[in-house]
Amino acid sequence: MEEFKLTTRDEMEAETDKLLEIGRKVGADSWQQRVKNQTPHCRFGEEGICCRICQMGPCRITPKSPRGICGCDAAGIVGRNYLRFTAGGAATHSDHGRSICHTLYLAKEDGNYKVKDPEKLKRIAKEWDIETEGRDIYDVAHEVAETGLMEYGKPFGTQRFLKRAPKHTQEIWEKEEIAPRVIDREVSCSMHMTHMGCSSDPEALARQSLRAGLSDGWGGSMMGTEFSDVLFGTPMPVDTEANLGVMQEDMVNIIVHGHDPSLSEMIVEYAENPEMIALAKSYGAKGINVAGVCCTSNEVAMRHGIPMAGNFLSQENVVLTGACEAIVVDVQCIFPALGPLSKCFHTKFITTSEIARMPDSDFIHFDAENAGENAKKIVKMAIENFQNRKKDLVYIPKLKQKATVGYSYEAIVKTLDTVTNSHVDETGTTKPLNECVKSGIIRGAVAMVGCNNPKVRHDYAHVELMKKLIQNDIVLVVSGCAAQAAAKAGLMSKEAKNLCGDGLKRVCELCDMPPVLHMGSCVDISRMMVLVANLAKDSGWNIDELPVVGCAPEWMSEKAISIGNYVVATGLTTFLGVYPQTKGSEVFDGLLQGGIKDWVGACFHVVEDIDKLGDAMIEEIERKREHLHI
Ligand code: BF8
Ligand code: SF4
């Protein structure tokens, strides 16, 4: 048996260089080149002190001009920009959640979408006081979906899922007036507050940022996750593979990219259809290979073991292999660059959502009603495109690692139970995990999430931090592009246990799990919220006392900031490796990195030096342990 070894960043970059070389031959552009073209960035933008929200501006803050034309100061401008950024993220995640609600509403026994986890559906129905006894499961599904849709627009009250949080957390949210009302209201209220001539008070802007974030994490994202599980199944551990080497030279390669599993689930289904496989063979391919990029990849990897080709900054690489017949996208984090890039190769760039229309793509409008038919059409298009491959442009790097993924909250509870063999009911408890933490076998946990950002060497921060943390017996729960960084490097292989400290290694052995647990896509950070909520309830500690922190070392998107806000507002101190655009106001920045702790028991810390970032997290976890006397 070959000895286990992580794939290094150097190895991956050497392969990327080869791909870029091929790209240059066919006139392809690349993000690496565009970063050069865009550097240096505008300092006003970087520090958040450029205001463009009215036509008297744009106004920029300098020592000579400390206020905009309306008189708004740096704290107001930075705060408004930050809140708008958050609202963008909350809207995006939540609208994804809304489309999943709609899909659930349209689910039927003989339709394109069915209920795959009726037990989970019944649990949610019970939570929401919806009758399940003696009812057809689809009646229940439709009522739950409609009730979920009302969470976006009901006139009164707060988000239903807030009740999942421990009492202590709920009380903080009430007292600080940040309990999120309906989702659309938090987003539009944020836009209203940041209109010219409304809020310029930094505290009010920070507070609304937390509330808008919470409407995402405990509202839109949580419904996105929960209803995706109901529709497509709750993830359980499954083996898969990661990195560009999952693409196959003799197969039709279809890459699914984006976020909404409604599309990718159907593509996966049709790619397994015997009729389609026969068609692929008739075109000279051995079969059909579906692989993923970004969070769509996380969704189908978690549920079906579909291999993960790469994360955010790998998206151009999949086309550069010359072996991608189609890259099929839904929404979010899709480079518009894929249009012109695909034209340099034979690749079909297929857009499917009205939310994400892009030039140089084939648009096939995909919705719940036409899902089956259109998924078939897309798979067929990819197959027919196999013959157009330019053989001399094909280069698939041999990079590939094994990964075990699928650690939903339910799966983690079940897996950790192996340590104590205590009884698990249908929802289980987190007691075994608590025991491991109390005894110190596991020192704590880091929820590492978020994107790639060219401001940080691609995946380097994720992987180096994860290595350091597991060496120190800190278990990782990860999602989004952080998860794929781990998988590509090999940290989701069960053999990665050999890189752990003795305590965590023992837990990995006993539970037969990797030290870095893949909890899913970015909307699935709601799973992490459920996990810490139940850890707190089962242990009797408050969430802000748990030796658990959040971390986004390479983040870039509005969604990531929305996430940061709800993770902090839930009580988890969160470490960022990329400075948000807030440097221009010490007052606002000081709130985020200190002041808000008085409200919610946690705040942000920005540490751009990766080594120091790791140390800071370990120190924070040890401080929490000391406080708990464990
Ligand atoms: O929602 S981690 S780059 S893919 S935003 Fe995007 Fe960031 Fe990746 Fe998933 Ni999340
Ligand atoms: Fe300038 Fe005020 Fe208008 Fe912003 S709102 S652009 S600071 S005048």
Write a structural description.
- The structure is a single chain.
- By secondary structure, the protein is α/β, with parallel strands linked by helices.
- It folds into three domains: 67-232, Substrate Binding Domain Of Dnak, Chain:A, Domain 2; 244-393, Rossmann fold (3-Layer(aba) Sandwich), CATH 3.40.50.2030; 405-628, Rossmann fold.
- The chain has 25 helices and 16 strands.
- The strands form four sheets. A six-stranded parallel sheet has the order 6-5-4-7-8-9, sandwiched between helices.
- α22 links the parallel β14 and β15 (574-576).
- The relative contact order is 0.13.
- Iron/sulfur cluster (SF4) binds next to loops.
Bound molecules: FE(4)-NI(1)-S(5) CLUSTER with Oxygen, iron/sulfur cluster
Give the rounded overall mean pLDDT.
Answer: 96
CATH secondary-structure class of the largest domain:
Alpha Beta
Extended strand count: 16
The largest pleated sheet is described as: 6 strands, parallel
> What is the CA-atom radius of gyration, in angstroms?
24 Å
Strand content: 5-15%
Structural class: alpha/beta
Tell me the quaternary state.
Answer: single chain
How many domains, as an integer?
Answer: 3
Gap from first CA to last CA: 41 Å
